[in-house]
C-alpha cells in the first residue's frame, strides 16, 4: 500500500483567460505536514481551493486514496463533496458563527436529530469527543465562540474538520494571530494529528515555522510548482532563491547605529492603556525603533495612544523638543505622525475601492476642496506605484484583487504621501511573502535615510533584530529593555519579554 493519499497531476486553472495555475503537480503522504510556500499570488491558495471544491480545475487529474488503499480519480465539484471525502480547510479568517456555541459550530450543517427534533445530547457528546482530540477538555461545549481566544477558535475549526472524519486538513497561515505560547500549543496539536494519520497541508510565510513543523516543502512561483524538497535537505536561502527566482542576498540588517542625534519624538511618564504603569521613550530622527513583546505586552496600546486613537491620560509628548497634545488621529497627522495598522483589511483599506482611491484617501485634504482633483490623484498614485513597486493591473484595480504584500504597500503609500516625520508600523509584514518583506524593509531603510523616524512593532523576533537600529522590549505595559540591536540576541530579548 502506498503512503501517498493524494495525487494532483497537471492541474491548470484560468480566470478570464489568464492562467493562474500551469500544469501543477502535487502529492501528499499519510501523516505528514506538507508545507506550501511562495509569494502571494503564486498559486498556493488557488490549488487548495481546487482541492476543497471551491474552484474547478480546467485541466488535470486528482487522485484520492479510497477505503481499500488504492488511488482513484475524484471529482471535487463542491466543498460538500470535498468534505465528504475527508478534505477540510481552516482559513486564515475563521469561518465560525460567533454568536453560537462551540457544539453548535462543530456540528453545524450535520446536526444529529432524533426523529425531527435536534438531539442535543448527541451533539454535546460529538462536540466533547472532538474537543478532546484538540486538547480543549477544559472548555465547555456550551461556551459561545465570541468569548474564546484566537487559539481556541482555531482549535474549534480543527475540531469541526475532525468531526467530518477529515483525512486531509489544510491550514492557511495558522499562526498569523497567535502568541508564542499559542504557537507551541498548535504545533503540539499538529504533531498529535500526524501521529493519528491525519495529513496536514500547511501554508505559511514564516521560515522558522516551516523548518520546525514541516516534513516536505513545495515551492510555487507565478502559478507553477517549482520543486518539492525534504525539510532536512534544504536551507532557508535555497527556499528563498526558489521563491523569488534568483539568488537572494540579505541586506536587511541595520548597523545598530543611526546617523542623527536629534530626538524626534519623546514621551515622559506615559501611562499605557489598562496597565497604569509609567514609561518614558524616545525615537530619534532617522531611526528605526523596533518594539517587541508578547501579545498583551502593551505595544499596540502605546502606538494607538501616540496616534490619538486611545486617550493618553497622564504623561507628556514632545516632538522636536516642543510639547504637543494629541487628542485624536487628526491631531497626530497635523503633528506629522501617521500609523499603519496591524489589520490592513479592516483598519487600513477600503476593500470595495480601487488602488487610486485607497492610496490618495489620506491626502485628499491637500487637494482642491471643491471637487476631488483626479489629475492630482492619478499623478500621486502613479508616483507611489513606481516608488514602492506596487504590482497592479492599473490604478483602478480593486484593492481586494491585490496580493497581501501589494495591499500593504498601498497602505504604506497612503501615509508616505503626507510626507510625515514619524511613521508607526504595527506588524508591517504580517501575512506577506518573502519578496514583499524584503521590499518593505527596503522602504523602511530608505525612509530612515531620508531622516524619517520609524516606530516598528513586530512579533517576529528575527525581523526586529534584522531591521531595527534600536529595540525596546515591553512586558505588562513597561519597557524592560532598551538597547541598540547590535548589542542584543534573541535569547536576551525573549528573556526580557517574559520577565
3D architecture notes:
The structure is a single chain. It is built from 17 helices and 22 strands. The chain is an alpha/beta fold and 499 residues long. The strands form 5 sheets. The protein has a 6-stranded mixed beta sheet with strand order 6-9-10-3-11-12, with helices on both faces. A 6-stranded mixed beta sheet has the order 18-19-20-15-21-22, with helices on both faces. A 4-stranded antiparallel beta sheet has the order 2-1-4-5, with helices on one face. The termini are far apart. The mean pLDDT is 86.
In short:
With 499 residues, the protein is of the alpha/beta class. The protein has helices spanning 44-51, 79-84, 102-107, 120-133, 150-163, 180-195, 207-213, 236-244, 299-306, 329-334, 344-348, 355-359, 374-388, 404-416, 434-449, 461-467, 490-498, and strands spanning 4-15, 18-29, 33-37, 59-65, 71-73, 87-90, 113-114, 117-118, 168-172, 199-203, 216-221, 224-230, 263-271, 278-284, 288-292, 316-319, 322-324, 337-340, 422-426, 453-457, 470-475, 478-484.
Amino acid at each position: 500500500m502506498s503512503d501517498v493519499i493524494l495525487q494532483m497531476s497537471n492541474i491548470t486553472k484560468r480566470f478570464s483567460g489568464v492562467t493562474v495555475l500551469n500544469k501543477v503537480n502535487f502529492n501528499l503522504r499519510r501523516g505528514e505536514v506538507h508545507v506550501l510556500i511562495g509569494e502571494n499570488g503564486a498559486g498556493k491558495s488557488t490549488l487548495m481551493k481546487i482541492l476543497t471544491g471551491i474552484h474547478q480545475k480546467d485541466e488535470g487529474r486528482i487522485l484520492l486514496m479510497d477505503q481499500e488503499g488504492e488511488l482513484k480519480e475524484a471529482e471535487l465539484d463542491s466543498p460538500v463533496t470535498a468534505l465528504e471525502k475527508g478534505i477540510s480547510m481552516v482559513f486564515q479568517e475563521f469561518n465560525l458563527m460567533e454568536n453560537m456555541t462551540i457544539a453548535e459550530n462543530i456540528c453545524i450543517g450535520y446536526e444529529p436529530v432524533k426523529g425531527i427534533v435536534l438531539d442535543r445530547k448527541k451533539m454535546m457528546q460529538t462536540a466533547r469527543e472532538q474537543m478532546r482530540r484538540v486538547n480543549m477538555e477544559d472548555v465547555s461545549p456550551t461556551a459561545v465562540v465570541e468569548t474564546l481566544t484566537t487559539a481556541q477558535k482555531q482549535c474549534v475549526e480543527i475540531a469541526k474538520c475532525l468531526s467530518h472524519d477529515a483525512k486531509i486538513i489544510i491550514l492557511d497561515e495558522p499562526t498569523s494571530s497567535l502568541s508564542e505560547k499559542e504557537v507551541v500549543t498548535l504545533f503540539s496539536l499538529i504533531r498529535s494529528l500526524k501521529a493519528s494519520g491525519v495529513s496536514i497541508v500547511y501554508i505559511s510565510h514564516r521560515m522558522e515555522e516551516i523548518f520546525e513543523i514541516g516534513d516536505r516543502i513545495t515551492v510555487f512561483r507565478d502559478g507553477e510548482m517549482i520543486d518539492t524538497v525534504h525539510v532536512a535537505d534544504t536551507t532557508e536561502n535555497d527556499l528563498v532563491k526558489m521563491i523569488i527566482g534568483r539568488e537572494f542576498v540579505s541586506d536587511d540588517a541595520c548597523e545598530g547605529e543611526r546617523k542623527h542625534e536629534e530626538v524626534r519624538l519623546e514621551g515622559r511618564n506615559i501611562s499605557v492603556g489598562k496597565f497604569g504603569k509609567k514609561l518614558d521613550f524616545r525615537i530619534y530622527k532617522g531611526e528605526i525603533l523596533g518594539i517587541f513583546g508578547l501579545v498583551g505586552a502593551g505595544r499596540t496600546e502605546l502606538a494607538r495612544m501616540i496616534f490619538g486613537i486611545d486617550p493618553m491620560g497622564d504623561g507628556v509628548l514632545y516632538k522636536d523638543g516642543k510639547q504637543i497634545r494629541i487628542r485624536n488621529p487628526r491631531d497626530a497627522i497635523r503633528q506629522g505622525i501617521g500609523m499603519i495598522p496591524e489589520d490592513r483589511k479592516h483598519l487600513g483599506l477600503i476593500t470595495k475601492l480601487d488602488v487610486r482611491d485607497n492610496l490618495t484617501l489620506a491626502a485628499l485634504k491637500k487637494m482642491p476642496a471643491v471637487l476631488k482633483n483626479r489629475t492630482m490623484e492619478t499623478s500621486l498614485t502613479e508616483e507611489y506605484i513606481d516608488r514602492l513597486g506596487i504590482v497592479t493591473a492599473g490604478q483602478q484595480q480593486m484593492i481586494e484583487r491585490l496580493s497581501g504584500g501589494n495591499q500593504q504597500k498601498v497602505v504604506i503609500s497612503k501615509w508616505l504621501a503626507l510626507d510625515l516625520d514619524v511613521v508607526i508600523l504595527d506588524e508591517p509584514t504580517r501575512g506577506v511573502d518573502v519578496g514583499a518583506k524584503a521590499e518593505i524593509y527596503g522602504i523602511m531603510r530608505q525612509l530612515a535615510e531620508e531622516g524619517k523616524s520609524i516606530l516598528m512593532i513586530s512579533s517576529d523576533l528575527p525581523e526586529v533584530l534584522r531591521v531595527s537600529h534600536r529595540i525596546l522590549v515591553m512586558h505588562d505595559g513597561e519597557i524592560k529593555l532598551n538597547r541598540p540591536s547590535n548589542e542584543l540576541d534573541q535569547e536576551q530579548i525573549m528573556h526580557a519579554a517574559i520577565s
